């Protein structure tokens, strides 16, 4: 039986979920934010150490300004709303990606929640914000150059944003697309991959549990036999 320590999810399909229901895209994003609760609680109760969620990519800035503005407001609302629940459930909140570009109010809320939950031991809830896998690797290499350290696999693994959480064991993408979209390229090099047609707002812990049980039974060879 494999032990699932690090689960990563590309939360895709909010806009299409809304379109199917003749709703605005922002309604899909609102519904999608609610799903995070269910998935995070499942992970905390089932011994999964880290849950990494692709929340906002470096490419998402290309979306219409009104949608980007809404996503920033939704993120701030989510962080404030989750504060007491994360503390109560002993969940550590963290981010990967370059969050320095966010406005001061949002950035302060992010940093404050990190500080308040830094001792959380039941789950690491990691949001990928202004994140791109290629950008992450480039930034790690630049840090190594500045530190005059050798650029090799071991040092990059120690320097990337998610260094504290290790490689991804299982990566899931909802919404029917079959691609990684620049998400955790380094960490997911040997991850098991699962793709589902379910849009993120309809995804739930029952569907996740089926994937987790499937993962536990897989024979992972990592290039061996």
Automatic annotation (TrEMBL):
Annotated catalytic residues: 12, 60
GO molecular function terms listed in the Swiss-Prot or TrEMBL record: ditrans,polycis-undecaprenyl-diphosphate synthase [(2E,6E)-farnesyl-diphosphate specific] activity; magnesium ion binding
Cofactor(s) annotated in UniProt: Mg(2+)
HAMAP family per the UniProt record, alphabetical: ISPT (MF_01139)
Cited PROSITE patterns: UPP_SYNTHASE
Function: Catalyzes the condensation of isopentenyl diphosphate (IPP) with allylic pyrophosphates generating different type of terpenoids.
Binding of substrate, residues: 13-17, 25, 29, 57-59, 61, 63, 173, 179-181
EC number: 2.5.1.-
Residues annotated for Mg(2+) binding in this entry: 12, 192
GO cellular component terms attached to this protein's record: cytosol
Family according to the record: Belongs to the UPP synthase family.
Co-factor binding details: Binds 2 magnesium ions per subunit.
Entry keyword set: Magnesium, Metal-binding, Transferase
Subunit text: Homodimer.
One GO BP: polyprenol biosynthetic process
Protein name, as recorded: Isoprenyl transferase
């Amino acid at each position: 039986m494999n032990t699932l320590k690090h689960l990563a999810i590309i939360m895709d399909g909010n806009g299409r979920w809304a379109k199917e229901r003749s709703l605005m895209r922002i309604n899909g994003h609102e519904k999608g934010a609610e799903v995070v609760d269910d998935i995070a609680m499942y992970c905390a109760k089932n011994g999964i150490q880290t849950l990494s969620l692709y929340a906002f990519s470096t490419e998402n800035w290309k979306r219409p300004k009104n949608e980007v503005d809404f996503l920033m407001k939704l993120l701030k609302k989510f962080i404030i709303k989750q504060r007491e629940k994360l503390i109560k459930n002993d969940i550590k909140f963290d981010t990967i990606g370059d969050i320095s570009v966010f406005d001061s109010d949002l950035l302060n809320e992010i940093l404050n929640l990190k500080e308040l939950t830094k001792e959380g031991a039941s789950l690491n809830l990691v949001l990928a914000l202004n994140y791109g896998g290629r950008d992450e690797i480039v930034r790690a290499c630049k840090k190594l150059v500045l530190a005059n350290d050798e650029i090799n696999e071991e040092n990059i693994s120690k320097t990337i944003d998610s260094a504290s959480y290790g490689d991804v064991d299982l990566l899931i993408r909802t919404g029917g697309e079959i691609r990684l979209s620049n998400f955790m390229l380094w960490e997911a090099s040997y991850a098991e991959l699962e793709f589902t047609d379910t849009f993120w707002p309809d995804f739930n812990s029952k569907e996740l549990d089926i994937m987790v049980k499937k993962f536990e039974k897989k024979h992972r060879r990592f290039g061996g036999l």
